[in-house]
Design a protein that fits this description.
By secondary structure, the protein is of the alpha/beta class.
């Protein structure tokens, strides 16, 4: 690999070093020179629309935007001349006058608004131009966020984010002149949209209050919040989170831009479903539905446990607990007859013998063909789906989808076969479309373990035999592979597992599963087994049909109250940090288990 050519230039009298191909703005920032921006954002294609980053280059009469202008060896750049400052002030005043920017009524007032910040930084105390007061629409039809066109400055950061990071291109710019505005699905609404994934990346990247989260409205300025970096445990990807908190509550959740897993991007699960969904929290122990003390609850549990033989005791664990809790569970083998984690359909065999996909999220964007077998990343692993979409749409990779229901990825697929044909002509066509591919990636979901999935994988392996494809296995369950490594057996047919031997004492660790473990009751055999068990203990964070059926309920800490680590599908051990103090009398999963089985 050839090292980039080094270049030097002078910016505001300071000798700055960079690489050939970098823009003036990139080199300036690398060397600590501040140039104001609004439409620019790292990791998005520069647009040059706001004209705040304009600079002068000695020897040229033109004023150019530094975010789109390549730096030249030996050039001399000025960023703070009187002419530039005057033009920036005029631009900002025009932006303030064009729409209806009533700052006191905006939740981003006093610290979070990029436009307001630049106005203050440039000493603007009044507007010389007449306000236009246009009639602009407000769209609050999306579940988690809204869009107020009155606050829009047409920086297109949301449009580029939607296109380049989430890969769906829901947003675009339409109309002309004063009517120019960001539109959803060619002039629709978020509520009607068939393309929006509700990932909220557009909200996080909006520099004004145009796009705003409904759940955090007026909870406090982000600049005044405490920020903690932790890891999402909603699926096996393990995205980095930047959590904003104030007054003992979550104000907002963004992606961690320095995470090698998601690079700041999140799906709807990580950005919103972790905190913006209303759920009834359990914060005190319950015995047969009535509040109790921890002492009373533990006494009732020990009495029931002592009345059962070791072989009659069983422990079921949600595969979203931390590695440290998994280690605690592994030590309980001498006190409990059977221990297992309950996983999704066809997932038991998929995670039983873990094969981690090292650096998959770094390597996947480099693929020139992506073959999905037996997985639904759009539903289960949103950031993986976004990576696939952008790799296909923006980098021209081919896409093949087998053994998966139709999703928003299929419209980009060269081949989409929910039920693949066994006919040789079909596979000859697949082979022909894969001809010339040099960097294929095979992304497998749990259904690859079925007979049909194994047959498709064998076909693809044969076609790509001479090209060493990147193999990526992505489970649905968050930490199931790590639990399997700890010796905790994964089971998907819980009803059959419980029926293997009589169970008089059943302890279920639902942890902070959003449904409170209720999905276990979708299997009628499980519901029947619970009725037969003498004592059912459920440790969970949220009230559900499962906790209603329990003999004893123990309150568990949620994702933002936990401390420890999880291991993602790449094999990365990722930190889970406490963001808030544990609510009420809830305790962390491992602590609860140690108390119960002490």
């Amino acid at each position: 690999m050839i090292a980039p050519k080094k270049i030097t230039l002078t910016i505001d009298g300071k000798l700055c070093e960079g690489e050939a191909g970098q823009t003036i703005l990139e080199i300036a920032r690398t060397n600590g020179v501040v140039i104001p921006t609004l439409c620019y954002m790292k990791n998005l294609t520069p647009w040059g629309g706001c004209r705040l980053c304009i600079v002068e280059i000695e020897g040229s009469p033109k004023i150019v935007p530094s975010c789109t202008t390549p730096a030249q060896e030996g050039s001399k750049v000025n960023t703070k001349t009187d002419r530039l400052v005057g033009l920036r002030k005029a631009t900002l005043e025009l932006l303030f006058s064009e729409r209806n920017h009533f700052c006191p009524m905006c939740q981003l007032n006093k610290g979070d608004c990029g436009l307001q910040h630049q106005g203050l930084a440039h000493g603007i105390t009044g507007i010389r131009y007449p306000y236009l007061y246009p009639a602009m629409p407000v769209d609050v039809t999306a579940k988690y966020f809204g869009m107020d066109q009155n606050r829009c400055i047409l920086c297109t950061r949301c449009v580029r984010t939607c296109d380049e990071q989430e890969g769906v291109h829901t947003l675009d710019v339409a109309k002309r002149g004063i009517k120019n505005q960001v539109v959803v699905d060619m002039n629709g609404t978020f509520g009607e949209s068939t393309t929006c994934t509700q990932c909220g990346a557009c909200v996080a990247n909006c520099p004004t209050g145009t796009l705003f989260d409904k759940a955090n409205a007026f909870r406090g300025q982000l600049v005044s919040c405490q920020q903690v970096l932790t890891t999402c445990t909603e699926c096996s990807v393990g995205c980095g989170l930047k959590v904003f908190t104030k007054e003992s509550r979550v104000v907002s959740v963004w992606g961690d831009p320095d995470s090698l897993v998601n690079k700041g991007h999140l799906c709807v699960k990580g950005r919103y479903q972790t905190w913006a969904e209303p759920r009834e929290r359990i914060i005190t122990p319950l015995i047969k539905g009535k509040p109790a003390t921890w002492k009373e609850a533990l006494a009732a549990i020990r009495k029931a446990s002592d009345a059962a033989k070791k072989t009659e005791r069983a422990l079921l664990v949600a595969p979203r607990v931390t590695n440290e809790t998994a280690q605690t569970i592994a030590k309980l083998a001498g006190k409990i007859g059977r221990i297992a984690s309950y996983v999704g359909s066809n997932e038991a065999a998929f995670v039983a013998k873990p094969e981690y996909s090292a650096n998959a999220m770094v390597k996947l964007p480099d693929a020139d063909a992506i073959i999905i077998i037996g997985g639904q990343p759009s539903r289960d692993n949103g950031v993986v789906a976004a990576t696939i979409r952008t790799t296909v749409r923006k980098r021209g990779a081919k896409l093949f989808i087998f053994l998966a229901p139709t999703t928003n990825l299929d419209q980009y697929a060269n081949v989409s076969a929910p039920t693949p044909s066994q006919d040789e002509s079909f596979w000859n066509d697949v082979a022909a479309k894969l001809a010339g591919v040099q960097r294929p990636a095979v992304v497998c979901g749990p259904d690859v373990t079925t007979a049909d999935g194994k047959a498709v994988l064998a076909r693809i392996t044969k076609i790509l035999a001479d090209r060493s494809p990147l193999m990526v296995g992505v489970p649905v369950s968050a930490n199931a592979m790590s639990l399997a490594c700890s010796g905790i057996v994964p089971v998907e047919n819980v009803g059959a597992w419980l029926a293997e031997k009589p169970v008089k004492f059943l302890h279920i660790v639902a942890s902070d599963a959003p449904d409170g473990g209720a999905r276990l009751l979708e299997d009628s055999a499980v519901a029947a087994q619970l009725k037969q068990a003498g004592c059912v203990v459920v440790q969970a964070s949220y009230k559900s049909a499962l906790t209603d059926a329990a003999t004893v309920v123990l309150p568990a800490a949620i994702w933002c109250e936990k401390t420890g680590t999880v291991t993602n599908f790449e094999g990365r051990q990722l930190p889970v940090r406490s963001v808030l103090a544990v609510a009420g009398e809830a305790r962390e999963d491992g602590t609860i288990l140690e108390s119960v089985f002490a």
